[in-house]
Amino acid sequence: MDKIPILRMGPFLLVTIQIDLYDRLALNLETDLINMVHKTGARGVLIDISAVSIVDSFMGRILGNIASMTRVLDAETVVVGMQPAVAITLIELGLSLHGVHTALDVERGMALLQTKHSLDDEMAGDDADDTE
Amino acid sequence: MLMTLSKDSMSITREQDVVPCRNRVKEVAVKIGMGIVNQTKLVTAASELVRNILRYADSGEVLIEVVSKGRESGIRLTFSDKGPGIADINLAMQDGYSTGRSLGLGLPGTKRLVNEFDIKSTVGQGTVVTILKWKNG
Ligand SMILES: Nc1ncnc2c1ncn2[C@@H]1O[C@H](COP(=O)(O)OP(=O)(O)O)[C@@H](O)[C@H]1O
Ligand SMILES: [Mg+2]
């Protein structure tokens, strides 16, 4: 069975989707990612869909699920590289990727995660000061 | 008058048929020179309707036709199944309505993505959805 590889990059996980996913593969990715965030304590997930030519409501729902489930585990999800035609189509389809952050490419997505991550650290630092 | 220039059909029986069906539609769209945005809209619509066949009717068929009307050419897709049918089409066409606990965007979203949309359904007999996307539509 095919599997989408999940790469660890410091506190973040990177997934590059290189093929049009059939359903089983997409559902497996959802489960694998949640497990991996849980296991590694990752603080962010980056999903690169620049090679994906179609996102229908099924796939959109999976991206939304991943974002909301990782959030429960204290990790943010950023979807990067969405093709313009895919973005236009999603809007007309009526799918708003609620709660899913998006960025133009992996670099900017990573920067977004880093900002969120260090903001969290600062706040954690403030908390620590308060209790001292 | 609408003329059919070519015809191709595909049976849909399992989840693994979704991606090949999308690819087939895309190939035809590329062949008639449809632009990338319209291609993407059409293939996404096809994906939604194929999923509905699998989900609600188990199996069915897709007819892919290249059509022309005057100088315009386009693609007409017909999705037919002998599933349970839809009791209230107006309800099914509403954004967010789903008996499958999913997003309920397949039918109304598909209608927005194409130039012509037609649905006929009879409870106990099945459903036929026909969509048409003009090359420059
Ligand atoms: N081919 C079909 N056969 C029977 N019922 C269907 C079919 N397609 C759609 N439906 C009904 O219409 C509803 C709306 O479909 P759709 O807009 O695709 O949303 P979703 O698939 O997310 O429920 C479905 O929940 C189902 O009740
Ligand atoms: Mg549907």
TrEMBL record, chain A:
CDD domains: STAS_RsbR_RsbS_like
Positions of the STAS domain: 1-113
Domain of life: Bacteria
InterPro entries: Bact_StressResp_Reg, STAS_dom, STAS_dom_sf
Protein name: STAS domain-containing protein
Organism encoding this protein: Spirosoma arboris
Top-level taxonomy: Bacteria, Pseudomonadati, Bacteroidota, Cytophagia, Cytophagales
